[in-house]
Amino acid sequence: MGNAFGPRSYTKIIKKARTSQVTSSARRAVAKVASCPEDTGSQTKEGRQSRIEDDTHADTWCLGANFRLLCYTGQSCDVSPFLDLYGTVENVQIASGATAWTDQDTGIAHILVVHQGLWFGTKMPHSLMNPNQTRVHGFSVCNNPFDPNRSLGIVDTDSGMLIPLKMSGSTAYLELRVPTALELSECNHIVLTSDAEWDPSNISLQDWSNEEVDHQRLILSWNGRRRGFSR
To answer: Phi/psi of residue 174, each to 5°?
Structure first.
C-alpha cells in the first residue's frame, strides 16, 4: 500500500491510470480504540529513518514508518490514493505521532509532534506533510526553492526556529527518524499541528491562513520604504 501514496507514486503511472489526489473522507467514530499503542502491533521501530515529503496533494498529514505512535483519537476515515489504479483504503485511524529531528547546527534533537494525522505506520515507508495543516497551526512553511526572500523550511513564528527542508528533484523533504522513549520524554517538543479535529472537507484555508498574501504584502511594503530611503 505504501507505494500507492506520495510523489513517488507518479513514477508508477500507467497510460490508462488517471492521477488523482490523496483525499480522506469525513471522520467517524471508531467502535473500539486501543488504549495502549504499544499493544496494537502498529508501533514502528526506534531509529528507523526515512523521509517526510512535502505534499500539497495530501489533504492531511500521513504518518508512516518514521513516526512513533502516541495515541489514537477515536476516529477513522477512508483514504483515496493518487491513482485510481489503487483502491480506497478503509478505516484508517486518526492519530497523534512523533518523529525526531536533529538540528545540524547545534546537534540537538527535537521531537516533532503531529496531531490529527492519518496513521499508516510500517505500511508506509515514508511520511507525507500537508503544509496547510501546519500553516493553520501558526507555522510559516516555505516549500518554494525559488523564493528569494525566505529560507526553504518550516519556521516557528513564535521562536523563529527554522526546520530546514531539502530538495530532491521537485520534492521538498525532511530526513527524520523514530524517536526513542528517552528522547520522547527528555527532548524539546515542537507541535506542528493542532489537536483540534482536522476535517479538510469542512475547512476554509482562506479564513485561516493568508501566509503567502501577507508575505507578498510585506515585501511590497519594504520595497516601497527602501525606494523612499534611496531618494
So the answer is: -125, 145
**Cβ 105 vs Cβ 94: under 8 Å:** no
Model confidence at 214, pLDDT cuts 50, 70, 90, reads: low
Query: Among all chains, which residue has been given the C-alpha cell 511594503?
Result: 221
Q: Residues 143-188: pLDDT tens digits?
A: 999 988 889 999 988 888 999 999 999 899 999 999 999 999 999 9
Measure the CA–CA gap between 93 and 101, rounded to whole angstroms: 24
Are 20 and 83 within 8 A, CB to CB? yes
Q: pTM of this prediction?
A: 0.76
Residue corresponding to grid cell 493568508: 210
Cα 153 to Cα 1: distance, rounded to the nearest angstrom: 28
| Residue corresponding to grid cell 505521532 | 97
3-class DSSP state for residue 156? strand
Residues 6+ apart with CB under 8 A from 105: none
- 96, 126, 124, 123: which is closest to 111 by C-alpha? 96
How many CB atoms within 10 Å of residue 176?
Answer: 22
Buried b (16+ CB within 10 A) or exposed e, 27-40: beeeeeeeeebeee
Sign of the torsion formed by the C-alpha atoms of 216, 222, 228 and 230: negative
What does the pLDDT look like over 49-91, one tens digit per residue?
999 999 877 889 999 999 999 999 999 988 887 555 567 888 8
Residue 62: how many other CB atoms lie within 10 Å: 28
Q: Three cell numbers at 110?
A: 527535537
